[in-house]
Amino acid sequence: MRDNEFTKILGWPGYRVYRHEIDEAAKTLRLWVRRKRGNRKLICSGCGRKFSEAHDYNEREVRDLPWGEYRTTVIVEVYRACCPNCGIRVEKVPQLPSKAPFSKRFEEALGQACESAAVRQVARQFRLAASTVRAIDLRYLKRWSATRRKDGLEQMGVDEIYFGKQMKFITVVSNLETGEPLWFGQDRKQETLDEFFRTQLSGTQRKHIAAACVDMWRPFTNSIAHWAPNCRIVYDKFHILQHANKAIDEVRRAEFFRKGGRMRGVVKGKRWLLLTRWMNLDSRKRQQLNDLFALNRRVMKAYLLKESLERLWTYRYEGAMVRYLQSWIDQLRWQRLPPFQRLAQMLADHLDGILNYCRTKVRFGVVEAINGNIKTLLRRGRGYKNLAYLLLKAQRMAVTKTEFIVLQKAA
Ligand SMILES: [Zn+2]
Description:
Layout: H1 3-10, E1 15-23, E2 28-35, E3 42-43, E4 50-51, E5 56-63, E6 71-83, E7 87-90, H2 104-116, H3 119-126, H4 130-146, E8 155-162, E9 169-175, E10 180-186, H5 190-200, H6 203-207, E11 211-214, H7 218-227, E12 232-235, H8 237-258, H9 261-267, H10 271-275, H11 283-295, H12 297-309, H13 318-330, H14 338-349, H15 351-359, H16 366-381, H17 387-410
Helix pairs in contact: 2-4, 3-4, 4-17, 5-7, 8-12, 8-14, 11-12, 16-17
The chain binds zinc ion.
Zinc ion is lined by residues 44, 46-47, 49, 83, 85-86, 89.
């Protein structure tokens, strides 16, 4: 094969191969390239100014995409120009995006591989250290992020994620309309969210926020009230239902301890069944629940209360929503279900933010889906020490997959 054929297959625009070396035993291919005749303008990597005179040049060796079984490296002539703005500066070469020894398209292939596989797997496949793959992935994501248009924020979601013993909680701010996370902050205090408003948005942008979907967590609502004067707080349906799940769990546990002997066996191990919605259970599972209900009326009542709460968000008028909530609370009378009485009190205390759903429609489930994505990433990546990296990962994942996950949940 002649050098111009190597040039064709390599396909680096503006560059030609002038020397090659094939090592059959090691299965490596090395290609020496330099600029083609028509490609003589140098661009300063600092300011973008163009030059026709070079100061000097250097050779750089970078790993490129493999040719069949051959691991391929390219040795490039890289020039420096004498720039009046930047001094002696290296030229800009499109295939060399950083100082690392990899071509841009190699980094892109790795970044794409990291979207669907764990870093460790990708590292094994390309025979690189995991830390190198992580650094490549981070650069790939930063380049992607830099070219994106940033949407204005009108509806925001705020949530917290438990990060394990060391990091504790992080606060996640997301854009409900695009379904992507915007910002991560350490901890879940009022000051945490304050920092988002202060550092990420201008005064005009803060005034532009119309709604926020949050949990009934005072520090967050305080911060929003302070920074975003036109923002309506809408309590997230999924969060409220999580509180209902917690209540049913408490009832189950209390019954488990209250009843002795035979009954314990019936209540024990039914946690998952009780937390699953009736419509998602098959007939055998439903029978198991019915058996449990026949023996324990209190657990049954708690289950029905949890199931019926979800209907609250089918109402479109405040009056109807209030009436339904009132009748739901009325059912609690004489039931002796303290966890549900506490839940009812909580709902009454946060009534305005629940009713706001009738005034401003927000997409419930987005915050949940983003949360789920982040948890998937955490499980797959075995911990992220770099929050900025995790945020970029989650943003990329949202852009490529969130819709899919939201739809799955609704089905
Ligand atoms: Zn310059």
